[in-house]
Structures are given as structure tokens and as C-alpha cells.
Design brief:
- By secondary structure, the chain is an alpha/beta fold.
- Helix content is 35%, strand content 23%.
- The strands form 2 sheets. Strands 5, 6, 7, 8, 9, 10, 11, 12 and 13 form a 9-stranded mixed β-sheet that branches.
- Helix 8 packs across helix 9.
- The protein is globular and about 55 Å long.
- The mean pLDDT is 97.
- The structure holds S-adenosylmethionine.
- The site of S-adenosylmethionine has 18 residues, from helix 6 and strand 6.
Length: 293
Amino acid sequence: MIPQFLNRFLERDYGKVLAEEILRGYSVRRPVTLRVNTLKTDGQRVVSALAEVGIGVRRVSWYDDALIADGADEETLRRLSLYKKGEIYLQSLSSMLSPLVLDPQSGENILDMTAAPGGKTTQLYALSHGGAQITACEKDKIRFERLKFNVQRQGASRVNLLLADATKLDDFFRFDKILLDAPCSGSGTLDPSRPIALSQKLIENSAQLQKKLLKKALTLLKRGGLLVYSTCSVLNCENGDVLREVLDSSDGELIPIPEERFSLPRLPSPKGTLCVAPTELYEGFFVAHIRKK
Ligand code: SAM
């Protein structure tokens, strides 16, 4: 059941018609999607291996490494040796956007600030062809173990793992790029057929933590360095409002994400940012690209 207050929040942010579309988007069953781990294999080999076990896939126009496995369920995919060997990673299409926008390059020193379970850490590493020096930080011990497992299984051998509260990292550190895939209410990914633990308090607390983490990220970034802020929330109080409050009082500025780069169902969002609408293919998701002046 979607809580009543969320309807109000969505109507306040988007108006009645779009709010209803978002609610419809929550209810649809999305196909399983996966990312080819190019550190270990390539798309053609994965497509062939899946075809051999009767799983057909569709490609995605904006990302060669993304596949949509229509008709397959997660459990079936998890039993495949492709999965066990870390040649594929089950990941929502929306969540593949943040590493693509950050565009990691070999030789760069990159912080993945809130990293577990590691889908984006390993994607960043693969996108840099294993050449970026990535530090993946995670505060929660159990989730950190999952991050460690995934990083190993995906063969992201040079990732430096840090069990720490990112808000307390030493200000002495400086990074070329930072991914802040922030903890959030999850309001983009709700499934009304399951119990929903969402409250106004959780949303308020998320927004406070997001501001704290974003301020810290700007401190840890080199001058001229680049940052991606993303959440799996569609609420303005966790996205646009967080950016406005932090960027107005810091030396960060938004860099527009070109509209034509990704062909996606979008919701209105601050100029230059990207908010994906929940649909039959996508989870709700927000991405902003920021430069430190
Ligand atoms: N980027 C991850 C991925 O793609 O697999 C998902 C990250 S999830 C949205 C946010 C993570 O931030 C959670 O694992 C949470 O435990 C962690 N977290 C929350 N507060 C943190 C903090 N202060 N420092 C570091 N990690 C934190």
C-alpha cells in the first residue's frame, strides 16, 4: 500500500496527472535487467550464452553493456555460471546511469562514497577498463561484506575498500571524481505488492544525511573535479532541494547532462539534471552532475 502522505508529496512536486503516472509506474512488473561485466567477457558472448539456455535479451539504445532479459526471473539468472563467475551483474537500468555520467577514466582517483552492495563501484571500474584507482566506502558492516564479495566476484581487483562513515572521512583526502549514490527513501522504487517502510520522518532524515554527505563530497573533491549525486527517489526534497541548499552555499555548480545523451522517460527536474520516471522498464531515479569551481 502506498502511504497517503506520499500521494500528497508527489502531487505537490508534479501535479495530479504526473503523480498518478508515477503511482501506476510503481505497480508494473519490470523485466530483469543486467550489465555485462566487460572486465571478464563481452556482450556477444553473454547474449549467446543466454540464448543457449533459452533466455532472449533486448539491447538498450544508450548503453552497449546493458541487457533486458524479458521473461527470465532473477532466480534463474542467479543459477547460471555466467552469474556465479561475475560475468554479469543484475542491475536496474536506471542505476547504470550514474557511473555513465561520471565517466571514469584510467588513472583517475575516484571515491564511491556510499558504495554497497557495489553495483556502481564495479561498473565504474569496468568503465575505466580497470585503470581508475577507486576507493569504495560503506558504513554498514553487513553491507560492506556484500560489497567486498561483489567487488571480488566481478574481478575489480584494484578497488580499495573502506568500512567507514563517509561524513567522517579525513578532509585531507582529495579525489578527481566522486560518486555520491546517496542513501534515500527509495521513493522511486516502491512496489505496492510488498510492505512499504516509508515515513515522513525517514524522508526528512534522508534529506538531512544527503545534504551532509554532499557537503562532504564537495570538500573531498579537487578544484575542477567532478561529482555525480544520485538517488533512487523521485521526491524533490531529496533531489532538487538538497542540491539547491548545498550548491547555494558552496563552490559546486551543476553541469547540464545533455538531454539527447539518454533516451528515457523523464519527470520534470531542475535544469540540467535528470529524473527518470518509474515505468514498465525503469525505476524512478535522479542524477545530477556537479563540478567544484
Ligand atoms: N551505490 C550502491 C550500488 O549501486 O550498489 C548503492 C548505495 S545505497 C543507495 C546507499 C548506501 O549508503 C547504503 O549501503 C548505506 O548503508 C550507505 N550509507 C549510509 N550512510 C552512510 C555513510 N554515512 N557513510 C557511508 N555509507 C553510508
